[in-house]
Amino acid sequence: MKILITGGTGFVGKTLVPYFFSHSLTDICLLVRNRNKAICLFPNIDLKIISTSENEWLEKVINYSPDIVLHMATFFTGKSDDASIKKLIDSNILFTTQLLEAVSHTSCRSFINIGTFTEYLHGAGEYLPNNLYSATKSAVHSIIKYYQTQSQWNWINVVVYSPYGRYNSNKKVIDYLVDALDARIPVDFSSGNQILDFIHVDDMADFFCVLINSLDRLKDSYYQFHLGTGRGYTIREVSDIVEAVWGKPINANWGGAPIHLLIQCMLWHLLIRILLC
Description:
Number of domains: 1
Low-confidence stretches: 261-277
Number of helices: 9
Strand content: 15-25%
CATH class: Alpha Beta
Strand order of the largest sheet: 3-2-1-4-5-6-11
Distance between the termini: 22 Å
CATH superfamily: NAD(P)-binding Rossmann-like Domain
Number of strands: 13
């Protein structure tokens, strides 16, 4: 089973790629911008690597001819200035379209696309993007659908909630809370009343491993799974948990940072594990 992974050098990919290899998913090709970064991250793993900075990368994808594509690569920003708009369109729409065009010339059976809970401002239901980034993630759905009808592979859309765990160069809420444990000056946070559904990156890796090993059991042409725990926590509740684990208080200035939009995202779909039990 040949698996092409985009975004393999990102936060989730750093955990997912070694996890796949430890669970006998070993024919993996990473499609990345920086070949050297991939080599340094996974020095002891026998990977095929295609760099988008190299000539003829599309032809190389076609020649690899993956059975499965796991498309995790994305560009995130909350900004909407001219430079950010160009990066969002180039990364989240143009690159995805180029990838789909290449994949349409292969024997691919399944295309797994990673979405975000911020595509649903009022929770898991109707699409209502929270920001321009979220809008680009939703906008590409029509393009995926077009290529799916042309190529006859099945499309699995996975909506990821709030991942955490291990080292992340792009800090998230829990990282900032941990940093605030040792802060001499109070760290500005929002009011702390936002509700988020947190999922550990190890559980995400396990999810995708189970999903890929079970694709033959998914007979429909389209599936969407919401990947979270099913339970929401306010930032204040998470703060209490962090304080209990570390045994010291968080030096937080609650309400010191503005909330642009209050997002309350509760999981209402069951995880794929329930389907596959």
